[in-house]
Specification:
Blueprint lengths: L1 H15 L2 H28 L1 H27 L21 H7 L6 H5 L17 H14 L2 E3 L9 H4 L11 H11 L13 E3 L4 H6 L8 H15 L2 H5 L4 E5 L12 H6 L1 E4 L15 E2 L20 E7 L4 H10 L5 E5 L6 H7 E7 L8 H7 L3 E5 L18 E2 L8 H6 L3 H14 L14 H11 L16
Parallel strand pairs: 1-2, 2-3, 3-4, 4-5, 6-7, 6-8, 8-9, 9-10
Helix pairs in contact: 3-13, 6-18
Length: 475
Amino acid sequence: MGKQSSSLVYQIFQHRFPATFKGFFYFLPISLALTTLLLIFIYISTTANVTKTHSQTTLYLQTLPSLINNIDQTSNLPIVPFEDNEDDNDNLFADPSRTARLSRASQWLLGNIFGLIDGNDTNNKEAYHDGDIFLQDYKQMNKSLKIYVYPHSKDDPFANVLLPPDTDCKGNYASELMFKKALMESHFVTKDPNEAHLFYMPFSISSMRSDPRIDVHGIPDFVQNYISNITLKYPYWNRTGGADHFYVACHSIGKIAFKKAFVARLNVIQLVCSSTYFPSSYLPHKDASLPQVWPRGGDPPNLLTSQRKRLAFFAGAVNSPVRIALLKVWENDTEIFAHFGRLNTPYSEQFLGSKFCIHVKGFEVNTARVADALFYGCVPIILANHYDLPFTDILNWKSFSVVVHHIDIPVLKKILQGISNEEFAMLQSNALRVRKHFQWHTPPIDFDAFHMSMYELWKRRGVVRVRLTPSMEFM
């Protein structure tokens, strides 16, 4: 039976298929083998530089701990203590084989050859993900959004924490107070809780931090007591478990504010500067990133690209492993100016004279350097892993900044030098276009940091609102 079947198949093959097809079928395996060998050759030849980069990065990661231990002996620069147990669990001393896989230089090159992966940070020219939809939604937000603010009198013993400041807001954490001040003077505030989309708890983390009656360690107790008080006095919290409530914090200590109110932390919307994916206190999509902006008066400057002679610039305190790594690799470079400590010259000179300005995390991911860079027309380099960038669901950050992983510090110059003049011009043009979103104004103006933050809150409002019955409406 088996011989008859084989004979039948042979006869069918001989009679039904022409000789040309049989010839093609004979050479097909050979063609596939040659193609495979060609692809292997291309892969080996194109990964030579990546192997070298891997070796440099691995050596860098292996020697960095000893460099940090000896930095106080090799440098006269001031060292600010930092904690070793960082929340992001993504430090620079991890297994080199793991972190190497995350490196830009280690991307799968065959994917690049065939266009499957595009690692170029400047490939997208649009500053907004969808500008038309944003403008349409923004108009609707500006017209309809209503916020109910829990009322507090000037006689309250903690009026300094609960009410907007009377003076101008200054300093690194001014965004928190600027938001409150702008909101209280805006058309978004309503005294009718039935028409409110969101409820604002107006306590200020930065004010609590500097109040000796509360101090840093007393912030969780203050927040817990505040929630208990509004729950007993008002009916609004209990309708949603606080899911339509929000608070604003710019200082990183805000991440412990709900330490003693665990359920509330899961529900309340947080508008915070310290927005990183790893701490359990921040939940992307529920919470939103607030830009940390140093208030500046007057119109922002505009310097021509040709006048920016320096490739990249950073200055700041040595208070994190990432900043120490940046120092050890680039402190003596002539094109990347990495300075630790205070400058003897105005910071504006370096911002205005550099093509790229480096945002690198210190104690926390949040710093005002991104807004500073945009203010002075310098393209930001984001060197802070897993950072939920401000307005990231609106703005296309790859069109006006360069996002770099920590492990790519040794190849930072190579990455920046690989950006052509045309690509840099596009990045800078978009940076100048979006910087209006990173500025505070008194009174606020359209599309500034306040209105963009309100837009983020509007996107997080509940679709269905529960109206109060007359018996529930009490103050």
